[in-house]
Fold this sequence. Notes:
homodimer
Amino acid sequence: xxxxxxxxxxxxxxxxxxxxxxxxxxxxxxxxxxxxxFFTDVKLVGVVGDDFPQDHVDYFKQRxxxxxxxxxxxxxxxRWSGEYHWxxxxxxxxxxxxxxxxxxxxxxxxxxxxxxxVLLANIAPKLQSHVLDQMQRPKFIIADTMNLWIEIxxxxxxxxxxxxxxxxLNDSEARELTGQTSLIxxxxxxRKMGPAYVAIKKGEHGCLLFGENHFFSxxxxxxxxxxxxxxxxxxxxxxxxxxxxxxxxxxxxxxxLRKAVVYGSVLASxxxxxxxxxxxxxxxxxxxxDRYQMFKIMSHFEVLE
Amino acid sequence: xxxxxxxxxxxxxxxxxxxxxxxxxxxxxxxxxxxxxFFTDVKLVGVVGDDFPQDHVDYFKQRxxxxxxxxxxxxxxxRWSGEYHWxxxxxxxxxxxxxxxxxxxxxxxxxxxxxxxVLLANIAPKLQSHVLDQMQRPKFIIADTMNLWIEIxxxxxxxxxxxxxxxxLNDSEARELTGQTSLIxxxxxxRKMGPAYVAIKKGEHGCLLFGENHFFSxxxxxxxxxxxxxxxxxxxxxxxxxxxxxxxxxxxxxxxLRKAVVYGSVLASxxxxxxxxxxxxxxxxxxxxDRYQMFKIMSHFEVLE
Lengths: 305, 305
């Protein structure tokens, strides 16, 4: 089964305490689509300007990502610039230029309408809902979001949540959305807003997965050096969606979701090792499976004797 | 094998957003000794004043804790008062009265000198070292510490670290001790300071265990309500030490340490469910083993097909 990914595509300028790089491939959909492409066929919906480097288009093609849904508009591509501080957990947005993204309406090619797995990567919840409006009955819909939408488009977000199977968000966003400091309570409350499954990402502390009467705590991979955290969450979401789509037989089970979350964590842990999507370019499935085993080993302990 | 526990014993007044209780049994050694007593015989070294309630002494006795090393001095028992805020992760110390603890010197009864397992619960590192000076060759020494000693007694702490097998500390303390924001780097650096094993506690995010070429990530139990976090870290340390002592056959292995850390986490997760050591009073080994299985279930995912 293939997965439809919609979100932002941009050119990023990223500054870390040790380095700075400009005009990098970025955007939630770029990371998510490439992440998902490790497991299954991907259909990408997004917009770029006519300045978008052919190199990046070629990379998507090399990952066998279907670009029929990629709109190329006259004007400049969305640009974001940010700076990470020493702990790599906090970042400051230096500038955001929406450019062609400002008037983006995700219009799906007819052939995309019956895709069974959908990943609504981080964009305005209204646009995420608009994508669903154009689809027949997808089997499993995952949405990602960010604090901005909780703050300026909460009604849209709450409307979207009733339509999705799984929400992925980070710990501070889960707290902000629910007004609960306990992540356990927050996860339960978000499930009551609509999604049967909720994944709360905790950065260097891993992530929590909530389902009905099910709970899974996934560790984070112990990286000593993180070079660029940009896109880690999007890559995670892409890995989750891609794995689920690749394993589609009958209903999505909590067991599959556990594995999907580990795969997403594996991909995200690789992605932060280099700037932008650079690490993904050299990554292969043997690397992915090796680190999956490492996740198993590092969280394993013996049952009682 | 039995375990010797040394640390503070006090009377706590604890305020949370919902409740306030005075004159509770507290102190690092109280929590640690009771935690360890779930697994093995415990010898307690500490000091109390002549105002220390007989009730608390009786509770130690009921837990079969050897009190030959408990000094009762003329004067008042050590008192601490603190307040937790809404997120239960931050607390403010309202007052500290050292009282008889001010001139405490842990003097070991002769019979304690050859105890094989030692838990140096949180007290000044100089006093922790003084306990080791009075011992023959213990098999495994665990030390706990706190930010105060990193700030005002770093030399003493560094001297102690060369003499212990395992250090337990929380994430902010690990960062403060090493000047590293990455906990993975911090764990490795602390191992170079002496202890072969390091456990970094991350509160609601579980804990990380470091050994030579070994790493274990232990989840935290998903509690919806925490009533009093006081002593969680001490209870954890007690559980770790008690389990290790109870399983002593040959060298302590990383495999045993993994289990010990899960047992410590189980005990700590129960302890925060009520004020002071109240939850420990009704806890039995079936409860402990049940929750151990829950830790297994919530961190379990399938290996690759």
